[in-house]
Amino acid sequence: MTSLAPLDTALLLPMTAHVALAAFLYVLLTIARAPAIWGIGRRADGSNPWVKVEPRLSANLSNQFEWPLFFHIACVVLMLLGTGTTAIALAWVFVGGRLLHSGVQVLTTNVRLRGLVFTANFVAVLGMWGLLLRAVLVRA
Q: What is the pTM assigned to this prediction?
């Protein structure tokens, strides 16, 4: 029986940072929905002060389970194959981009800027998959 090489955990921190972002968005969404669901934080007229931001928070939280799936898969496989500084840098570009993307999506309605920020996330993950493909082909 062949044993696996030790797990390279260098990508665990950026992965954890992304999970923390998703957890933070869950907290924000709960707060934004509290006036409508529990009556906590309603305005004097009974309205929800977060009514405009709640749909954007919800959409952004959903976004954390779309393209980031490919980020996490690449991270896990790269941790098994060995992580280089380029992969770590790309992972942090992804996390920074996700933070910016969340800020832009939740705090503004600027779709053009959101698309530009998303492009950084997109390219970072494609780069990680390129590194992954290269690592596999070199081993073949």
A: 0.88
